[in-house]
Amino acid sequence: MLLLLAAVLCAAARGQEATGGRFVCNAIPPGAEPGCGYGSTGNRVQSSSPLEDELRNTILQLRETILQQKETIVSQQGTIKELNSKLARCEGSRRKEYGKNTMGDLPRDPGETIDQLGKTMQSLKGRLENLEVRWHQQIASGLRELLRQRLGALETQLLRKVAELEEEKSQLYNETAAHRQRTESALNSLMERITELEKSNNAFKSPEDFKVSLPLRTNYLYGRIKKSLPEMYAFTVCMWLKSSASPGIGTPFSYGVPGQANEIVLIEWGNNPIELLVNDKVAQLPLAVSDGRWHHICITWTTRDGFWEAYQDGERLGTGDNLAPWHPIKPGGVIILGQEQDIVGGRFDATQAFVGELSQFNMWDRVLRPVDIMGLANCSAYMPGNVVPWIDANVEVFGGASKAALEICEDRAFDS
């Protein structure tokens, strides 16, 4: 290529010579730039012509272009070699595949094979994507169902546990309430007993050794029993009393209930004998206790046939029946000592008031045996009432009535 360029340049020089200029072609020294500016000695000839400068620049540009094309050709040759190597490997692989064809089919066109492989690959890719989508959907659906079942089971367990805790809480609350109630009841009983003992220690030797004194016939002196009565179908009332009032000792006690102020009354009024009233029905008793001495009296009654008994100082002095038969004693009333009630707990009449002293007022919800009554009367037995016991804490006094210490058996012996 360089020789061709040198010939072109020489021809151009001859053309210049024909037009009146003169150029001489000389050999180019090794390593020198191609051109015509050299003499026979190899030295570069100085040129002052503009045409020579233009030719020199053109030669330099052509040289640079040739070098660039050379580099491009070398690069392309390497790429061609690499492609040929890859193509050879592909053809060898296809020959192996064709060699496995037992039917002896002829190899297909490479382009058609590549297209077919591309379509097959695309189809397989689509099927794989579909399978992945379906697999993910099935997994998601299965996971949702499993999660739903698991959440349902957990919710059921949680509700069962909450129900068990609520039941345990309720049982614990009930047990705690019952235990608290029992504890409070026991503490109240203990406090009452302590109060009774403190009062007895301060006033009486024992809680039952006292008397109630009602010295005047008025409508405002009386005692009140704090305990009320249950419904009863029989009763026994016993007491010690001392009176010399006249005419009549009055009303030692009365029990009134709503709707019936004379549910149970023991009264001696005016010149009448002592009377027992049950449900406002009257029985006269053969008792005489107005001599100013202590006397023990007991009265029994049962709803069966209205049968009654009257005891004085341990001896039975009279009996009778048909006193309010088959009538049960009503509960929830008030027991008053020393006054007769016209309404429950009040409206007293001074002419019916008891004047004297009372002690050991006890009541039972059954008929006591004669031997038991005799033991109480001669002080050989101590039997507090199971319904109303004579205890200091159970008796209140009002209007000037008073309580004082009394050992009834010693005082009675002294009177005798």
TrEMBL record:
Residues spanning the signal sequence: 1-15
Keyword Metal-binding among record annotations: yes
GO function term, MF aspect, one: metal ion binding
Pentraxin (PTX) domain mapped to chain residues: 208-409
Cofactor dependence: Ca(2+)
Coiled-coil regions listed in the entry: 114-200
InterPro entries with a match to the protein in the record: ConA-like_dom_sf, Neuronal_Pentraxin_Related, Pentaxin_CS, PTX_dom
Protein's recorded name: Neuronal pentraxin 2a
Organism: Kryptolebias marmoratus
